[in-house]
DUF11 domain-containing protein (Micromonospora kangleipakensis), 256 residues
Amino acid sequence: MRPLPPNRDEAGGATAGVDETRRRYGEAQRPADARRPAYSVGMWESVAAPLMGLMAAMAAAAPTPTPVPPDSAPVLTSTPFGALPGQRVTHTITIAGGGTLTNTRVTFTTTADLDGVTARAEPGQCTASPRTIVCELGDLRLGTAPAVPRITITGRVRPGVPPGTMVRNRVSVTSLESTATGAQFASNAYLLPGSTATPTDPALESPAAASDVPPGRSMRVPAVAAVVLAGAVVAGALLTRGRLRRRQSPPPHGDL
């Protein structure tokens, strides 16, 4: 049997149109997923790897934003300023300005022990000791809060501090923002005057002691009299010595 020519049926008619119709009908009947081109896993990896490298390079090249330091500062007030040993004193700490402080900590130190010290923070909590008070204030939004953050420390300066001692009170404020800019400080200081003893009235003298020194006479009179007496004794000794020498000397030759 002789093979048929392409695109011809047994009767010799053209079949090109029929074949084209069948092809189009078959394409329409196939699912949409079957008509999509197939992609391999290796193809996706070859595309994703350069893309991820490009994104990493862009992230590394992007400038890191510089944190803006908060515009704030601690303020320390001591009342009364220059408190003496045995005197009660109140230290007030406020944080003025604007900005945000995260995990805020305020530390107060003094070189003079405080007896019966108490500390109160608004907001926050404090731990107090005679020379160091630490207050945790948490996160602060300065300038927007209804009240300025405040810490009140009260105590009595311990008696017995030597005169001339320098009493220094110091406040430091640290936060998450201060790790780059450094802590903020405030302080005051004063020198304790002369004596720390409580002044008392002088003791009354006994009648016998009062009669030994006549009123109105200086205590230097006995000392002057002693000096005069010593001079007289020395002069008398010199005169006596001169007389003895004259008596012991031989008489002149004319008197023999």
